[in-house]
Amino acid sequence: MLQDQFGRIHDYLRISLTDACNMRCTYCMPEEKTPCMPSSRLMSVNEIETLTRIFVQNGVRKIRLTGGEPLVRKEAREIIERLARFPVELTLTTNGVLADEFLDTFLKVGIRSLNVSMDSLRPSAFFSITKRDYGERVRRNILLLLDAGFHVKINAVVMRGVNDHEVPDFIELTRHLPLHVRFIEFMPFDGNHWEHPKVVPAAELLERIARDFSFVKLQDGVHDTAKKFTVLNHAGTFALISTMSAHFCSGCNRLRLTADGKMKNCLFSKNETDLLSPLRNGLDVEPLIRDCLNQKARELGGQLQPDYHKIDAETLKNRSMIAIGG
User: Fold this and answer.
1) Is residue 224 within 8 Å of residue 196, measured between CB atoms?
2) C-alpha dihedral sign at 194, 196, 197, 201
3) CA distance linking residue 214 with residue 233, whole number of Å
4) Greatest Cα pair distance in the chain
5) Direct distance between the N- and C-terminal alpha carbons of the chain, in angstroms, rounded to an integer
6) Which residue ranges make up each domain of the chain?
């Protein structure tokens, strides 16, 4: 069992397969071109499997594969098939561009739930955010996944003046489709030009939604990051992830492993623990995992202010989102 000094049990591991992506989302990647890590620095397929085994032996019961875009890694299919053999709930977060090419693999290994990142339903805004013209392809793949019986969540990072006016359009999708749309507050990472006025807090968003829809609150789990709702007579749901305005650190059960084998005990932690180098040197990494977890701060990585208006993004020490893993 992996337990931190505040009594939180961690049984959920997010593994980044790559820092490469086929999109360049503004909130995730720095504007300046940053080279992807060479393959020698990435965890190999065997190393991912070995580290996964150690985490599972210590109580991890859910694993989410992330990136970058996890499906652009050339060994993605093999990694998925190997990790599916562990007694865990295996899922992944994807931008959806390659979902159709991996549908057979998902069905084969028993993956039935996917998170798809999509921040706009309008072609021009989609291109502005992602720098790629994949909007229609992503929408087709979402429908393909639904037709195949998948539980599909859409992750939309809401940014004031960019896509916040599209929130009703996203909720309208849930009228006839069993989609689960999650609105995520804009978070600060290296190079993404975060400013607090760009954040649309969950409470404000809920007030806006109430002008157009009648909805009810759904039951949330103890470890849920999303506050879930459903509009009356809609087939799907919507949820708010209030990382900036109302954090949920007290129920956190998540750990992260970057593509280059660094363990992060929090998305916002400034420190990382290298597991890959010791593993390659034949050392026991379990004590390093426990030591990293023991250093986890009570909230917000120990460096963000609970009042997001007081956060100075220039002083934060962290990677860009694409280098951490979504």
Assistant:
1) no
2) positive
3) 10
4) 59
5) 24
6) 12-324
d(CA 176, CA 162) in angstroms, rounded, equals: 26
Look up tokens 């359009």; give the residue: 169
Identify the helix (H) or strand (E) that includes residue 46.
helix 45-57
Sign of CA dihedral 244, 192, 161, 158: negative
Q: How many residues does the chain have?
A: 326
Span 74-132, pLDDT tens digits: 999 999 999 999 999 999 999 999 999 999 999 999 999 999 999 999 999 999 999 99
At 33, the pLDDT band (50, 70, 90 cuts) reads low
DSSP state of 37: P
Are the CB atoms for 189 and 321 separated by under 8 Å? yes
Residue matched to tokens 């929408």 = 139
Residue 280 identity: R
CA nearest neighbour of 258 among 245, 242, 271, 239: 271
> Token pair for residue 68?
């970058």
Per-residue tokens: 312: 């100075």
DSSP state of 8: -
Strands (E), the chain: 12-16, 62-66, 89-94, 113-117, 151-158, 180-185, 215-217, 227-231, 237-241, 254-257, 262-264, 273-274
* Virtual torsion, Cα 117, 119, 122, 127, nearest 10 deg: -80
Please state the φ and ψ torsions of residue 285, each to the nearest 5 degrees.
-95, -10
Handedness of CA 154, 321, 82, 51 (dihedral sign): negative
**Which pTM was predicted?**
0.96
CATH top-level class of 12-324 = alpha beta
Query: Helix (H, G, I), strand (E, B), or coil: what is residue 45?
Result: helix
Q: At what angle do helices 45-57 and 286-294 cross, to 10 degrees?
A: 60
